[in-house]
């Protein structure tokens, strides 16, 4: 399969001839460094819905936390992830184009830092919207709240995937790999627990995802 170009709704737009590539270095490095993360058993229990807690409240709280985590993680790479080093938002042969469905209707090619900036601004708009994320405890969530969560976390996954594929060696150099690995494992266990990100959306780093989620 060749280069896949995807828009913000995950629709494949075109396919180009494949190129021969060796397995990415981050996959073997992750296995070597995975011991420096919090144990899976602790995280598996941490993502489960606590007794008596409303599912939407749980999804909302964790979604906000995951967005904060990825924002902080990416911030450490801003000087290395630039329009020059990352002229497109991609994960290997998978390329993502930006559209928010409101101000940008036609998916457009942007650099990785521009994509992440647009994404973080869009996420902030979603979270600040009290119709979607009610601020008052006990206030009703929209009936399709899970759809909003899925849309947000699918895009958060893309940022994780880009970091691992394009910047993991720098993450190791900065000695941030243990924190990144733990955050990613927590994120994956959560979205798997509640089926919030589809397998096809995880295809760009499928082997890494399977490594992280292995029993």
From TrEMBL:
GO terms for molecular function: kinase activity. InterPro entries: MOB_kinase_act_fam. Pfam families: Mob1_phocein. Keywords: Kinase, Transferase. PANTHER family: MPS ONE BINDER KINASE ACTIVATOR-LIKE MOB. This is MOB kinase activator superfamily. It comes from Arabidopsis suecica. The lineage of its organism: Eukaryota, Viridiplantae, Streptophyta, Embryophyta, Tracheophyta.
């Amino acid at each position: 399969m060749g280069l896949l170009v995807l828009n913000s709704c995950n629709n494949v737009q075109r396919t180009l001839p494949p190129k021969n590539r060796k397995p990415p270095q981050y996959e073997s490095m992750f296995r070597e460094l995975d011991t420096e993360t919090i144990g899976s058993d602790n995280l598996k229990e941490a993502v489960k819905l606590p007794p008596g807690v409303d599912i939407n409240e749980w999804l909302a709280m964790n979604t906000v936390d995951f967005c904060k985590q990825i924002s902080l993680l990416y911030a450490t790479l801003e000087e290395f992830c630039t329009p020059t080093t990352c002229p497109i938002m991609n994960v290997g042969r998978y390329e993502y184009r930006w559209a928010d469905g409101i101000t940008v209707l036609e998916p457009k090619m942007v650099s990785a830092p521009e994509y992440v900036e647009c994404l973080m601004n869009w996420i902030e708009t979603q979270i600040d919207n009290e119709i979607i994320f009610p601020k008052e405890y006990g206030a009703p969530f929209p009936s399709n709240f899970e759809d909003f969560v899925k849309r947000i976390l699918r895009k958060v996954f893309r940022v994780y995937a880009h970091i691992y594929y394009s910047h993991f060696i720098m993450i190791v150099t900065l000695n941030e790999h243990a924190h990144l690995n733990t955050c990613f494992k927590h994120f994956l266990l959560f979205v798997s627990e509640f089926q919030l990100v589809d397998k096809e959306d995880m295809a760009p780093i499928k082997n890494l995802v399977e490594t992280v989620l292995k029993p």
